[in-house]
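User: I'm putting together notes for a lab meeting next week and I want to include a structural view of one of the chains we've been expressing. I don't have a solved structure, so I'd like a prediction I can at least talk through. The sequence is below, exactly as it appears in our construct file.
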Amino acid sequence: MTTEANIGHTLRMRRFVFLLALAVTACSNTPKGPDPDVLWKLVSEKCVPAQQAGTNPPAPCAAVDLTGGVAHGSAVLKDRDGATQYLLIPTARITGIEDPAILAPDATNYFARAWTERGRVDDIIGHPLPREAISLAVNSTTARSQNQLHIHIDCLNADVRVLLKQNNGKIGLAWKDFPTPLAGQHYRAMRLAGDDLARINPFKLLAANIPGGTANMGNHTLVVTGTMMPTRKPGFILLDGQADPKTNDPGKGEDLQDHACAGS
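Assistant: Thanks for the context. Below is the predicted structure for the 264-residue chain, given as structure tokens.
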């Protein structure tokens, strides 16, 4: 090979190495998807230790309740998305709505705890909201980004609120198909009497009457919102949706919420 040929070969090799290096760098700098364990890491590595150390508030969380120990505790975190959205997160490792731990005999009633934290939304809005304006939502496994159970605490979408009010008389004390789609999704609905959820665990109510049994819990999304009973006493409406690829329904009850609390 001549000197000129050697030089040409060397230049081509250098160019190849340079381009390969660029490709490797580009791949290493490509943004990765969200870490599905971010919530768990924040709660277990920061919020719980902060609470145990007596830090107030137990940053980055707004509050941590360790009643019954870490295995039965919960944390409240201001979500970075939405002006008013908070999350209620177990301090135990519980993946989501499909986790059998939420149905254990001694399971913490996380919906009950989430309802008691609704005043944080009021504080941001600047005035108390009626119970019908507040909702709690858990997404299905296919519609969530985090593998740690979290209940979204925020305003109910105004359009959904209107539909629930218009069909209030059609919602009974047992699960029944809601007569109209909500945010384009099909739901079953039932009502509960009571000012709070201390004696009733919505997860267990769903599991007791779920098509296909509890093995299908992960396909479901569960939404709880306050209401007034026909007797004008306080109560709740439970909404059960199901992910369905045939209808492009992701099973995302969070879609029934308004993270801007418009008009509230």
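A couple of points you could mention at the meeting. Confidence is low (pLDDT under 50) at residues 1-32. The chain has two domains: 1-30, 68-258.

User: Perfect, that's what I needed.
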